[in-house]
Amino acid sequence: MPAYDAIRSALKEQPLFAAKSWRLSPEAWPLTRDQLAQLEAIGRACLEFHQALETLYLRSVAGRSLLRNKPLAAPWAAEYLDRGKPEALVRHARDPRLRGKVPPVLRPDLLLTDRGFALTELDSVPGGIGLTAFLNRLYSTGESAGGDVLGKDDLMIEGFYQSLAGFHPESRTPVVALVVSDEAATYRPEMQWLADVLQKRGRRVVCLRPENVFPLGHALFFDVEGTPQKIDIIYRFFELFDLENLRTAPFFLEAWEHEEVVIAPPMRAFQEEKLGLALFHHHLLQDFWAEQLSGGSLQLLRELVPMSWVMDPAPLPPGAVLDGPRVGGRAIPDWGRLAHASQKERDLIIKISGFHETAWGARSVILGSDCSRDDWQAGLARALELAPANLHILQEYRKPRRVRHPVYRVAEGGAPVAEAEEGRLRLCPYYFVVDGEARLSGALATFCPPDKKIIHGMQDAALLPCRIAE
Question: Cys bridge to 110: 199, 254, 333, 427, which one at CB 3.0-4.6 A?
Answer without folding.
Answer: 427
